[in-house]
Amino acid sequence: MEQNISERHAPSGVPNHDVEEAHGEIKSYTLREDRDFEDEVRRLENDIRIVLEEVSKSVIYHNITYQLQSDRGIQSNILRVLGSENHILMVVYALGSLEESYRAQKQLGLAVLLKRDFNWIEEIEVFDPLISPVDRKVIEKLGCSVLCVNEHCRRRVTRPTLFFMPFPEIQLKRNLFEANVLPSQLNQMVLLSNNEIFEPDRIPFSFEESEYREYRMALRNFTSSFELNPFPEDSETDFDYFHWSFFHVSDDFDMKKFLPASVVEKMNVKDDNDDDSLNYEDLRKSTEETLDLIFSNDEAASNDIFKGCRLPPKFRSAGLSPRAGWVKLNFSGRGFDGHRPAGFGGIFHDQFNDCIGSYHGSLGDADETVASAEALREGMRCLQRITPVRRLLILGDELRIILWIHQVLHFPSKVEEQMVEIFEFLQNKICLVGHVHQEANAAAVELAEKRTASPERKLWIADLPTITL
């Protein structure tokens, strides 16, 4: 890469879009303060569209559809559950918030794609106490309905029903089976979730949970389970231990006798006083506290606690400033538009919001995703040339790159070279990686737009201030 270090000032016209409270506590914002509702709905819809597209092309979805189309055991169980009915209702519990979690977007995307591709799934109902007003609007636009009442996973089955529970606490699964102990209920159920309820030796139990061991063992005798992704080399952590589970209990068999006596006593008592679950505002505060924790932590392992999380709306729209000892990289890529070649660019800021470097270059006929991956890789290379960095804040406007770095989805072969190099650079570094909108990434976008017909790549470096590491 050819360097141009004769200039010692930041590129002209590079605006600063960071939040003013750079060195204080991350502020909490209300819905009215931090974004227009309809605009946030539109932005979330766009994110979901990208996630749906990526999930539909993924190995895991290919495996799921192939399994449903070819596994005779699964097919015969679906037909048995359907009986004389033509359709199964899908109920999604324990999803999380789409606004806060890319993993929740991925899981809902899986449900929507299954409904699209398999006509025996008629409709989808969704509930999680973390669902926000924006989430609700987007979920409904996807053709699903959002339940207004927290059922605590105690839905009593009266028709063929598929329960999809992506991230359930064990108590929620217990609620589901306590509400459906009759053979006529269990035999109309399909459960798509992790299989821990049928594996009493795999996870530790408290005394209360150990009381359910007899029930679990009895239920397992009437269960047919099929691992969701039976190809270990293609496994994804989001689907560890996931199974399709079907139940076939004899009509005269009494499952209730295996439940703890205390559970049987309260089964017919309606309890509306146990709604102590988190809500969306609690989750947003927790997300902001997590950001503070990452900025203050000196362990690279802290990176994992934000994986799969979406930045709060304020920071996606206005940017996020680095804290003391951190360096921020904003990167962007523009695809070949038929006339101008693809371009990439990036800009670095220190803890004082001073620009300490920038770069840009051209890539021929690459698309925007490849250009964005190249922008980030070039940023990693530049960092090795200008200063040793251990704490790094990375912000970009191409969502796919962020999803791949968060390991929510696998990157395709077309960016494998760039992504492998990026992951190698990020090893043992404390980093926070987030998606921002273009208005919060204007400086990097401007640099990417400098693309020319020349393949020349230029690096500008400023005098570096002392960085506390």
From TrEMBL:
Query: Which InterPro entries does the entry mention?
Result: RNase_H-like_dom_plant, RNaseH_domain, RNaseH_sf, SRR1-like, SRR1L
* GO cellular component: a single term: cytoplasm
What Gene Ontology molecular-function terms does this entry list? Answer: nucleic acid binding; RNA-DNA hybrid ribonuclease activity
Which residue stretches does the UniProt record annotate as biased composition, category Basic and acidic residues? 1-10
Region annotation (Disordered) maps to 1-25
Q: Which residues form the RNase H type-1 domain?
A: 338-449
Q: Which PANTHER family match?
A: PROTEIN SENSITIVITY TO RED LIGHT REDUCED 1-LIKE, SRR1-LIKE PROTEIN
* Protein's name in the database: RNase H type-1 domain-containing protein
* Species lineage: Eukaryota, Viridiplantae, Streptophyta, Embryophyta, Tracheophyta
